[in-house]
């Protein structure tokens, strides 16, 4: 626990930008945030002439941050247990929002890094897509040295992460350029059912034991939405289809076949270059389901152990064995699947670097075509957070060493990094990286991360993302998350998309 943290903001509001940065240094803190208006002239004068009247410590907090953020100047004071530990005053600051935000973030980073002895590998970058800056710079013809300098000096990114960003962004660009993504679109289909709920998960998912009786009704509603989506963009080619979840193979073999038949009947698949289904949980996989996936033209599947340590699997709520993981991989190969991804998570409860090294050693024997290495992110709605007292004293240790193990493993076994993203509250402020052997990359993963192509989404909790490249603009249309609401309100979900198409301006 990093104690109580007070954040006082006067004037310009940067809470959404500053809170993740503070959280990166103080991952287990509890926050109190206060906003104060500072627009009236007397208040502005008080801020400039007598800042101590506003920037005083509150000794009740372990950390107090007081920030006067006016149009072209700012004053920052940082207190630790009531004692002043850092200040930053600046006049003549560029008022443009991004430049101003970055300047403030750099000053707070400097103070916290000095006081805590920490550095963050991604500097002040707290967003989901850190490689996007590199991708866009390369696409605009900017020199590598210029992009590197910006990442290093403006965003305080480490040299190691800068190098990783260039490796990933270059591979992404090569793949997307080769497929002419501008002429296409993708479809995501969400199946929100799981055998059980893992303790780290906050996705829209419903355990079969309680909600299995709704699967057929859900597929009926989903069929209706897919019938509509199939004709939405006749001027473009459907290039990738991704069926995720939840766990799509939580459906019975008959239900899975029904779903894939619906895809075949309703979607224009003739130009589809990648068709992915998350087989996911090994305890949901059968030989018949793998055969169905192959018969209906699925080109890529995932079998996700997360770890090969049985005690960890039991602890995190995955009701399958290590032996079932091995069996599922062998069955998939026997069924003819030649593009299989596996996911692992580093930083899982109770694990250390030696556990990850053993997991990777066992995965080497299975030789998947791609490997996605996630770093544990503590989600607010996950059981790991809501019932954290159950996992006290079981925190992972050596997460950076775990990451180093995974990087070395992937290099040794010819897996190249091809996409990367981050989440809030990630262990050690690290990242998720997708590795693949050449030609086995997940194209949909790149499209969703780099936001280069419109993705239509069907299912409970699914969000369609409409990309307008000429305007550098993205619009979103969401479906309801509730399973029963989705089933009962499917016509409304379709109408939301119809209304968007009828009212949108610009070219997709």
Task: Summarize the structure in words.
By secondary structure, the protein is of the alpha/beta class. The chain has three domains: about 5-115, Double Stranded RNA Binding Domain (2-Layer Sandwich); about 130-175, no CATH class; about 180-495, tm_1862 like domain (pyruvate-formate lyase- activating enzyme, Alpha-Beta Horseshoe). Helices cover about 40% and strands about 20% of the residues. It has 18 helices and 18 strands. It has helices spanning about 15-25, 40-50, 95-115, 130-140, 145-155, 160-180, 210, 215-230, 255-265, 285-295, 310-315, 320-335, 355-365, 385, 400-410, 445-450, 485-490, 490-505; strands spanning about 5-10, 30-35, 65-70, 75-80, 85-90, 185-190, 195, 205, 235-245, 275-280, 300-305, 340-345, 370-375, 415-420, 430-435, 455-460, 465-470, 475-480. The strands form four sheets. A nine-stranded mixed β-sheet has the order 14-15-13-12-11-10-9-6-16, with helices on both faces. Strands 2-1-3-4-5 form a five-stranded mixed β-sheet, with helices on one face. A hairpin with a 4-residue loop joins strand 17 (about 465-470) and strand 18 (about 475-480). Helix 4 packs antiparallel against helix 5, helix 8 (about 215-230) runs parallel beside helix 18 and helix 13 packs parallel to helix 15 (about 400-410). The longest helix has 21 residues, at about 160-180. It is globular and about 75 Å long. The model has no long low-confidence stretch (mean pLDDT about 90).
């Amino acid at each position: 626990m990093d104690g109580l943290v007070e954040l006082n903001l006067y004037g310009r509001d940067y809470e959404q930008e500053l809170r993740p940065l503070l959280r990166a240094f103080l991952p287990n803190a509890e926050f109190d945030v206060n906003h104060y208006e500072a627009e009236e002239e007397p208040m502005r004068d008080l801020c400039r002439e007598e800042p101590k009247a506003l920037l005083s410590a509150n000794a009740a907090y372990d950390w107090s941050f007081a920030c006067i953020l006016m149009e072209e100047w700012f004053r920052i004071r940082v207190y630790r247990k009531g004692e002043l530990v850092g200040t930053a005053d600046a006049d003549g600051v560029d008022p443009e929002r991004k430049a101003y935000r970055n300047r403030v973030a750099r000053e707070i980073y400097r103070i916290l890094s000095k006081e805590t002895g920490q550095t963050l590998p991604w500097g002040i970058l707290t967003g989901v897509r850190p490689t996007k800056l590199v991708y866009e710079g390369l696409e605009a013809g900017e020199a590598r040295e210029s992009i590197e300098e910006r990442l290093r000096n403006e965003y305080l990114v480490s040299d190691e992460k800068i190098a990783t960003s260039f490796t990933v962004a270059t591979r992404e660009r090569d793949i997307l350029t080769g497929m002419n993504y501008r002429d296409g679109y993708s479809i995501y289909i969400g199946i929100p059912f799981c055998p059980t709920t893992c303790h780290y998960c906050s996705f829209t998912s419903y355990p079969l034991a309680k909600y299995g009786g709704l699967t057929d009704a859900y597929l009926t509603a989903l069929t209706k939405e897919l019938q509509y989506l199939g004709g939405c963009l006749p001027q473009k080619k459907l290039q990738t289809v991704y069926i995720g979840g939840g766990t799509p193979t939580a459906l019975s073999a008959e239900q899975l076949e029904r779903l894939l038949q619906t895809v075949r009947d309703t979607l224009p698949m003739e130009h589809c270059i990648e068709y992915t289904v998350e087989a996911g949980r090994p305890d949901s996989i059968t030989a018949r389901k793998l055969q169905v996936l192959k018969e209906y033209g699925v080109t890529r599947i995932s079998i996700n152990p997360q770890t090969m340590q049985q005690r960890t699997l039991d602890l995190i709520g995955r009701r399958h064995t290590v032996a079932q993981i091995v069996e599922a991989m062998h069955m998939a190969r026997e069924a003819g699947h030649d593009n299989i991804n596996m996911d692992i998570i580093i930083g899982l409860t109770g694990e250390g670097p030696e556990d990850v090294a053993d997991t990777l050693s066992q995965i080497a024997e299975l030789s998947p075509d791609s490997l996605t290495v996630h770093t544990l992110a503590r989600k607010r709605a996950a059981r790991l957070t809501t019932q954290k007292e159950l996992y006290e004293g079981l925190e992972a240790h050596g997460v950076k060493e775990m990451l180093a193990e995974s990087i070395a493993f992937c290099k040794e076994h010819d897996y190249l990094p091809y996409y990367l993203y981050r989440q809030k509250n990630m262990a050690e402020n690290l990242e998720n990286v997708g590795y693949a052997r050449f030609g086995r990359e997940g194209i949909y993963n790149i499209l969703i991360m780099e936001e280069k192509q419109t993705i239509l989404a069907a299912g409970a909790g699914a969000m369609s993302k409409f990309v307008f490249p000429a305007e550098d603009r993205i619009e979103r249309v969401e479906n309801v998350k509730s399973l029963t609401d989705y089933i009962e309100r499917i016509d409304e979900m379709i109408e939301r998309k119809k209304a968007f198409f009828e009212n949108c301006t610009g070219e997709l």
